[in-house]
Amino acid sequence: MSSSSTPNRRSFLAGGAAIAAVPALATVAGGAFAEAAAADDTLPDYAPIPPSALGPAVNAQGYFVGRLEKNLYWVTDGTYQAAFLTTKDGVVLFDAPPTIGGNLQRAIDQIASANGVSNKVTHIVYSHHHADHLGASSLFGRDVVRVGHTETKRLLARDNDPTRPVPDETFETRRTLRVGGERIDLAWHGTNHTPDNIYIHLPKHDTLILVDINLPGWVPFAGFNINEDVPGSIAAPAKALTYPWKHYIGGHMGRTGTRQDMVVYQQYVADLVDGVKKALVAVDPTPFFTKYGNNTWAAVKTYQDAQVDYAAAPVIKKYTGVLAAADVYTASTAFLILESVRLDSGVGSQVHP
Ligand SMILES: [Zn+2]
């Protein structure tokens, strides 16, 4: 292998578990590795993706930009999403995913020149501190007002990542941002995906931006989207639905969401919660503890694997063809929900007599 292709190969391998690597992987898989990947029949087969999960095709530069409502636009690379608002005083950008990176300004330039408005980003609103949504923030330099939650500032100060400058302006519970006569309502309604994940509502644009909660058309990424607060994340869709909106930006995958997408996602999670509660009662632990004796972890692992299968199997069946990749990640999410139902809700806890 030539030295020029080595870094690609290395990042391909190192990023194997990271959703951030997906666009890079897609590029690689379409090139030199396509034949090898197609020939590997040891890899598992999964159900086809429902066409409803997919969004518009990206252009030759690797992005799609579209209008949500009036002067509010969204950008995607097929896996990540950002949004921006053009105003008479400049552009407000919502998140800066590194996978979209330089295409953020390209998308803004494209729209600004078509409409004869400023292409200068004056504000960046941070949804939450995660690098996969903010890692292109530093591309916009120092002369930009970054706005985020106080906890986002604290976490970014901790992470000390030069690609994600800390917010210049912060808020605790609510903040209305007014730029160029436009209105953006920011709110923190408790922890969910992360302690700092906020609701970004544009009432005049019928849009809610709430990142890493619902990925329209798809089941959550591994482990319930790596949500740090499982009960808080389960509660988030209902909070999102209390706002009036027509367009939803979830930060992920190739299309925007509708209220119906939020309802389907909410039901998917509710079905998993029901399933794990049933599994806690229905799955008999005896055979696992009998077989593994004093290897407690072996008994616990196989017992919980059986509970996860019990909970996930009907949900996978129900949502295959409805939400993409139900057969890929539902079991992984069921495990996180099982642990939360046990540890947060206390279901199945038994007190020694
Ligand atoms: Zn995140």
UniProtKB/TrEMBL annotation:
Keyword annotations: Signal
Pfam families, per database record: Lactamase_B (PF00753)
Coiled coil location: none
SMART domains, per the entry: Lactamase_B
Residue ranges of every copy of the Metallo-beta-lactamase domain listed in the record: 79-252
Signal peptide coordinates: 1-34
Keyword Signal belongs to the record: yes
Keyword Signal: yes
Entries under InterPro entries matching the protein: Metallo-B-lactamas, NDM-1-like, RibonucZ/Hydroxyglut_hydro, TAT_signal
Protein name, entry field: Glyoxylase-like metal-dependent hydrolase (Beta-lactamase superfamily II)
Source organism per UniProt: Kribbella orskensis
